[in-house]
Amino acid sequence: MFKKFCVISLCIILAVCTAVGGLVFAIDPFNVYRADSDLKKIIYQFPYYQNTGIARHGKYDALITGTSMTQNFRAWWFNEKFGCNAARLSFDGGVLQDFDALLNCAYKSGNEIKAVYFGLDNYIITSDSKLVDIDERVPEYLIDNNPFNDIKYLLNKDILFKYIPTYFAYRKLDTYDFYEMHAWDRDNYIFSEESVLKGYTRPDPAPPLPEDEFIDESGLVLETLLKYVREHPETSFTFFAPPYSKLYWNSLRISGKLSATVAALKHVYGELLKNKNVRVFYFQNDIERIENLDNYKDETHYCTDYNKYMLDCFVSGERELTLSNYESELDKMEAYANTLNI
Amino acid sequence: MLFNSYIFIFLFLPVTVAGWFLLNKTKASLPPKIFLLAMSLVFYAYFNIKYLPIIVVSIAANYLIYLGMKRLSKKAPRRLLFWLGMVLNIGILFYYKYLGFFTENINALFKTDFNVVKLVLPLGISFFTFQQVSFVIDSYKNNVPDYSLLDYALFVSFFPQLIAGPIVLHSEIIPQFADKGNKKFNYENFAKGIYAFTFGLAKKVLIADTLGNAANIGFGSIPSLNSVTAAVSMLAYTMQIYFDFSGYCDMATGIGLMFNINLPMNFNSPYKALDMNDFWKRWHITLTRFLTTNLYIPLGGNRKGRARTYLNQLIVFAVSGLWHGANWTFIVWGIMNGVLVILSKILSPRTEKLKKKAPVLPWLATFALTNLLWVYFRADSISDANHMIVKIFSMNIGGIDRAFFKAITTAEYDLVSRVIEKILPAAVPLFGYVLMFAMLAFAVFASTRMKNTNERLAAFKPGFIPMAVMCVLFVWSVISLSGVSTFLYFNF
């Protein structure tokens, strides 16, 4: 009796686990094993878990990435302007390791990547990404080549009960549009000075940090980015600094981080600009726009019109930094921020 | 390695069980034991290889002390070795677990500025220290037969009980490894083993972790809680800690059975207790046994008058509190438990009738007190715990915080609410609340009314229903493993 109980139970358990794993493998909602060659047909549910899979298996020749600051870019704008086949794969609140994983997967995909548009937020440059909890990064099992840890994906309740039903629900939708997915401007946020000021908290004043405070952090960013820049001269890298509102700069000044941040930006931009396949655009000193809080939904997030303007700049070269002007432009930014007292 | 991990369930456990019984077929006694010891150390080192030397050195040193005491016949050198063993074991525990806390308190008390050392606590150190302390005490009392180093090392490091108990005695484990009858694969024990393991896994993964998310929300935002959310947070934690710790012990029991090793019962439905004394006979039984044998009785037990008996009990509970963690919250929790146990003993003659006539009343009082005491165990500081208690009794009646309810909305919730949305869309917002209360109600019911895993094992008969229940719970738990939290008791 006991032998029968053991054998039958183990067989049932193994059979059901295999069936569940097989189902997840077959549907593959996070594109761990495959992706439709037509980007538009990919069901894009959860960028954090899906971006690396799309980067690895999708077909594209241009990549737009960055944090939430880049989520309102529509890849088709780039397709129209530059005649490319772009994929916008942003990580909301992403850290350096996420972008490293994404670029790594992209370059292993076999795609010929002509252009990378990278929204390089200040916090990416000044944060110690090594301190980021492992649970807050792209999971290892999605990006490594170890088939054994795929079990975390194949036997996963969330995938089975949540993302597979959602996958089918999206597939049924006539209005589903890959390019519109995870653009937060569709979420009815209010862009107004009143709402921005309502949500703004002035930080506690602190003495200025030493200028080299973020030297290690910015060094690691450079090490990571230059690896791809140098190994892929065929790719044109466009890094751009998103325009935060004046409130961001006000906070930076009060909290004593202004000079150290500007120094770190100079360090990174200066080194990046030494490479022929790199362009850097600086939108942060667009004073007229960053002073108008009606352009914002909070301290940092700007409206979609600005994304369109950025794209125009990528074509026209407006707001582009060069080795000869980047230091003076950043000095101007620092001088402006030092006049703020909100 | 966690019991509730894919690598343990699908690789480590099957390989170790198979290896143990295959090697036992060779009839040689050393290879299977060496294999099991090596696998237990791999299990331990998998968390952090840096921990490995600590346990290896600790095992070797204690065994040497045992050998020394075995060979020496004179009292004085034996006593010296005994104290060396005590200082070594308690010293290592103190260094890793309490040095930072001790220094902080010295600094606060004497306005000094000693460097506060924050060390990473080696896993299970509290458990294997107590296990070895009890071994050294038994060695000193000449209560230990001849053991080889391998037997001793296997007793301390046997992986099912290594990192979170139960706190086993050498006399209940080593003879089982020596028993030839236990070296053959036993389908009955294996069936009971996977049955107990599955129940433990489900308790940990499906109930404790889910309710733990809710408790974290409550205890993480005490100032903003109304009375209802504060009380529900408290209850969620009460359930979390029981299902977490007893779930772990059920898994340990189950794994032990797969090796034909019976581990002692650690939980006997503690929330069914009718007074606090009864509660402590049911909660973490092997810790109570250790403290009774090695602290309460040496202090004089109940042999030196009533006042001294109560004092001895208070000391035991204060030590028990401190054992659970290096924070005043644990000490206060321990002392409060001690006071309530003493009170329940004093009142016992008067409450006996009530327990027989209307047991629900003493049960309710005990359960309520247990809940309140867990607040001190869970809170980050005594002031936080006091604040939580004030919130509970402030009679600020309001709705349950949405974040709290969101914390327990698992993937199952998503799936069912999709179905409800199609049948009765208006019921979807309500469903979340129904689910939350249903989960809490089920947890309370299961812990206070249903049979515990040991009782289930005693009555276990292989049949369709236990098989179906086990298979469903096993698969459901396994697919719930990704992102599951670590065991609460690992840091104690």
Write the layout of secondary structure elements.
The complex is a heterodimer of chains A (342) and B (492).
Chain A: H1 2-27, H2 47-57, E1 62-65, H3 75-82, E2 86-88, H4 96-108, E3 115-119, H5 122-126, H6 140-143, H7 151-154, H8 157-172, H9 193-198, H10 215-231, E4 236-241, H11 246-254, H12 258-273, E5 278-282, H13 287-291, H14 304-316, E6 320-321, H15 326-339
Parallel strand pairs in A: 1-2, 1-3, 3-4, 4-5
Antiparallel strand pairs in A: 5-6
Helix pairs in contact in A: 2-4, 4-10, 10-12, 12-15
Chain B: H1 6-24, H2 30-45, H3 52-71, H4 75-110, H5 125-140, H6 149-157, H7 159-162, H8 170-178, H9 187-220, H10 227-258, H11 276-282, H12 285-296, H13 306-324, H14 328-357, H15 360-378, H16 382-393, H17 402-407, H18 411-423, H19 428-448, H20 453-458, H21 464-478
Helix pairs in contact in B: 1-2, 2-6, 3-4, 3-5, 3-6, 4-5, 6-8, 9-10, 9-21, 10-15, 10-16, 10-19, 11-14, 12-13, 13-14, 14-15, 15-16, 18-19
Outline of this structure?
Chain A is α/β, with parallel strands linked by helices. Chain A has 15 helices and 6 strands.
Keywords:
heterodimer; A: 342 residues; alpha/beta; Rossmann fold; six-stranded mixed beta sheet; 15 helices; 6 strands; 49% helix; B: 492 residues; mainly alpha; 0% strand
